[in-house]
Design brief:
Elements: E1 7-11, E2 14-21, E3 25-32, E4 35-39, H1 44-54, E5 57-62, H2 68-71, H3 74-81, E6 84-88, E7 98-100, E8 105-108, E9 111-117, E10 126-130, E11 135-139, E12 142-143, E13 146-147, H4 155-166, E14 173-176, H5 181-191, H6 196-210, E15 218-219, H7 220-226, H8 235-241, H9 248-261
Helix pairs in contact: 1-3, 5-6
Bound molecules: zinc ion.
The site of zinc ion has 4 residues, from loops.
């Protein structure tokens, strides 16, 4: 088996292994004491390769939502390791045997993860928060510099979910489901051309790509400073959009419409 390419980050008592898969997806292994939990295993083979290379036992799969590029490796990993599969209560998730609810706690070795329900991209979508990291796995709700498309819900639903995530500590590391970071930050700069944080972040993300480093994790503080989907209140952004007397949610909805049409 070809050794998979992966990257390692510390998150409090855990180690996070980021495994790029399927071109622009990120799958993750949360590792502690020789045990691993796989977040959104799009493809089994690269994760099995990393588990073997690191001598880890897969305890659990944590799915954020049902899309194939987040659950594609579920059945093969379960067959190979006997792991349990946790995720939102959605019959479209293959092999799900541990449906989770909002605010529920999941224990994994010495770690406790909190489930946050974040509908918007899909009707059933959850994020996983590790307070002792702090670290957050956001699937297709919050991306570095962006947010997921509104595939199954309206703007108000996604807006509510993003606001839930925004209440977490600023130093929280954000591990998202896709690598759209540079494109997202180019779009952000068009909306806020005078925001020095956005300009700096775009340069930093381009450097990461150039050096072969992943564009994750970001932090929630960085997202609040540069991600237009968390910045509806910014006067500069509102000026660019020509929206001054509308709610933050309406500004968010307009940014989402523009991003959908963005080349
Ligand atoms: Zn998705």
């Amino acid at each position: 088996m070809k050794a998979a390419n992966y990257f390692e980050h510390a998150a409090g008592p855990a180690v996070v292994l980021t495994v790029p898969v399927l071109g622009d997806n990120f799958s993750y292994l949360i590792v502690v004491e020789g045990l691993a939990a796989a977040v959104d295993p799009a493809d089994a083979a690269p994760l099995l390769g990393v588990l073997k290379a690191r001598g880890l036992r897969l305890e659990m799969i944590l799915n954020t939502h049902h899309h194939f590029d987040h659950v594609g490796g579920n059945r093969e990993l379960k067959a190979a390791t006997g792991c349990r599969i946790a995720g939102p209560d959605d019959p479209r998730i293959p092999g799900l045997d541990r449906p989770v609810k909002d605010d529920e706690r999941l224990t994994f070795g010495p770690l406790t993860l909190e489930v946050l329900c974040t509908p918007g991209h899909t009707r059933n979508h959850v994020c996983y928060y590790l307070p002792s990291g702090p670290a957050l796995w956001t699937g297709d709700t919050l991306f570095t510099g962006g947010c997921g498309r509104l595939a199954e819900s309206g703007a108000a639903t996604m807006w509510g979910s993003l606001n839930t995530l925004a209440t977490l500590p600023g130093e929280t590391q954000v591990f998202c489901g896709h690598d759209y970071a540079v494109e997202n930050m180019q779009f952000a700069l068009e909306l806020e051309p005078d925001n020095p944080d956005v300009r700096r972040r775009l340069a930093e993300l381009r450097a990461r790509v150039r050096e072969g480093r992943p564009t994750v994790p970001s932090t929630l503080a960085e997202e609040k400073a540069t991600n237009p989907f968390l910045r509806s209140g910014s006067p500069d952004l509102r000026r660019t959009l020509g929206l001054t007397d509308v709610s933050d949610m309406e500004v968010f909805a307009e940014i989402r419409r523009r991003k959908d049409a963005y080349a």
